[in-house]
Fold this sequence. Notes:
By secondary structure, the chain is an all-alpha fold. It has a single domain, classed as Ferritin (Up-down Bundle). The protein has 6 helices and no strands. It has helices spanning 6-30, 34-60, 71-85, 89-96, 102-123, 132-159. Helix 2 (34-60) packs parallel to helix 5. The longest helix has 28 residues, at 132-159. The termini are far apart.
Amino acid sequence: MALLTAKEVFQFAARIEENGERFYRAFAENLTGSLEKELFVYLANEEVTHKKTFEDLSDSIQDTKPTVGYPDEYSSYLQAYTDNLIFMEDTIKKEVVKIKNAKEACEFGIRRELDSILYYQEIKDFLPEKERDHIDTIIGEERQHFIKLSEMKKKFEQNS
């Protein structure tokens, strides 16, 4: 039984990216170190790019209905879950104040990307089998972001 459609997952992915962009931008404004500020602006801009990619992918997929008997309730539940999963405001605020340098800022971003990858790996099983490859596109985008952050972290480690 499919609980989701690929189109819904792309819409949720766009929402996660939107939440991430909002948080990263807000935190960039509050940071004093130029390297950390630049990193958070970079992360915010990456989230905007990912959001656009996911919206385009969502638009390119035919709308289908999940086979679960209560799609509207389930969709509302998933939207609330998405809003509180990766970029939960209280948790993020507590973590960000602890960031003292660009390396730690990279580590923060890396944890968010890993959380996203795990979320999408798990959610794949709730899709019809023929739509699961679409989610690999999202996972690929998140992995690229993870790689970029890991490379940036290495550069900051070498410069310290």
